[in-house]
Design a protein that fits this description.
Blueprint (H helix, E strand, L loop, with lengths): L1 E6 L2 E4 L4 E9 L3 E10 L6 E6 L5 E3 L7 E6 L4 E6 L8 E10 L3 E5 L3 E6 L1
Parallel strand pairs: 2-11
Antiparallel strand pairs: 1-3, 3-8, 4-5, 4-9, 5-6, 7-8, 9-10, 9-11
């Protein structure tokens, strides 16, 4: 079994910053792609940023230049540094981690609320 624990969400004013963390634990042989998704009320869940094992990253157009994804493979943790936050960034943020423990499985974090006030 694999557990993902997210932290770092909260309430921030527009222009502010937050850093999200997602730590994986449990039966893990290796970790592949790691990503952050978000879901705002009434909207579909969307990919915000993703990072490969080698460190290559990709971002949604709406967050390019403001968000940075990184990972610490030794700590089995993925981070999302969010800067210049806008009210449109308000959503529940979920981490997604692809884990190999005999087979490849995709796991989701519990979600953390990010609220940006204007």
């Amino acid at each position: 079994q694999v557990q993902l624990v997210e932290s770092g969400g909260g309430l921030v004013q527009a222009g502010g910053s937050l850093r999200l963390s997602c730590a994986a634990s449990g039966m893990i042989f290796s970790i592949g792609f790691m990503g952050w998704y978000r879901q705002a009320p009434g909207k579909q869940r969307e990919l915000v940023a993703g990072i490969t094992t080698a460190g290559s990253s990709n971002y949604a157009d709406s967050v390019k230049g403001r968000f940075t994804i990184s990972r610490d493979n030794a700590k089995r943790t993925v981070y999302l540094q969010m800067s210049d936050l806008k009210p449109g960034d308000t959503a529940v943020y979920y981490c997604n981690v692809n884990v190999h423990n005999g087979s490849w499985y995709s796991y989701w974090g519990q979600g953390t609320q990010v609220t940006v006030s204007s």
